[in-house]
Each structure stands twice: as C-alpha cells, then as structure tokens.
Write a structure and sequence with these properties.
By secondary structure, the protein is mainly alpha-helical. The chain contains eight helices and two strands. The protein has a two-stranded antiparallel ribbon. This is Reverse transcriptase zinc-binding domain-containing protein.
Length: 145
C-alpha cells in the first residue's frame, strides 16, 4: 500500500490540498469535490451539526419545519435514508422521521389498505382521511395544540 500526502502545510501554518496530487490520483470532477471540502485548522475539532437550523442543534420544531418543506409524495434517494441514521437525535425521533419519509407510519389510511376498518377518517378532526401528511401538516386539531 502506498501512502500519499494529500494535504500540504504552507509557511503561514495553514493547511491546503495538494492539488497536483489530487489531479493525478482522481478525475477532475472528484478532485474538484475534494477541493471543496473545508480543511479545519490544527486547533479545531470535527463536529456534527444538524443542518435543519442555523446554530446546528436538533429540535423537534426544526424537524417539523424540514418536513413541511420536503415533498412527501416523491421517493427519497436511498442515500438520504442512510444519512437520517447518522443524525444526533433521540432514536425515536430518527425512527419516526425515517417512517415519515418512507411512508410507513401506521395511519388509519395505511392500515385500511391491509385490514378492514370502519373508517379511515382522522379521529381528531373527522374531516379528511388520516394520512401522514394530514397528521403532521393539515389536521386543524394539530394546529391548535
């Protein structure tokens, strides 16, 4: 195995990418992606941040806001599903988010597809069919809570 030094130290104590070596080892597209990765200074540590807020801290409100902005009717790429599991949040919030994105929350509408039930209407407002979209965003009862 051959080791390469992809980072170089300049005279001003800053670290930068070894661009000639990157271009030699990778395609130009991959090299450009690597060069866009910020290099932390010697006194900074890597840290995980929740991208749903400006300050990088997870909250249920930020997840709710994020869910309101995505289109739940189109499929999400598999790699996005993998990113969900790496978020630093309580496990049940991560699991619920995954279930929402993959449309597997046991709503009355979804249960009614597999088991005969008297009604698939929302029990809280009794105005619309109980879907995940209705439960999280549309139900008037939820807005009053």
């Amino acid at each position: 195995m051959v080791a390469f030094k992809l980072l170089t130290n300049s005279s001003s104590n800053s670290t930068s990418w070894n661009i000639p070596l990157l271009n030699q080892l990778f395609t130009s597209c991959i090299s450009n992606h690597i060069q866009n990765i910020a290099i932390l200074g010697p006194n900074r540590k890597d840290e995980l941040k929740w991208m749903g807020t400006k300050i990088g801290i997870f909250s249920v409100k930020s997840m709710y806001t994020l869910l309101r902005t995505i289109d739940l009717t189109t499929p999400i790429l598999a790699r996005t599903n993998l990113k969900i599991w790496k978020v630093h949040a309580i496990p049940r919030a991560i699991l619920f988010t995954w279930k929402c994105i993959n449309n597997v929350v046991p709503t009355r509408s979804r249960i009614g597809r597999f088991v005969p039930i008297p009604s698939t209407m929302c029990r809280m407002c009794n105005q619309n069919e109980e879907t995940i979209l209705h439960m999280l965003l549309e139900c008037p009862f939820i807005h009053s809570v």
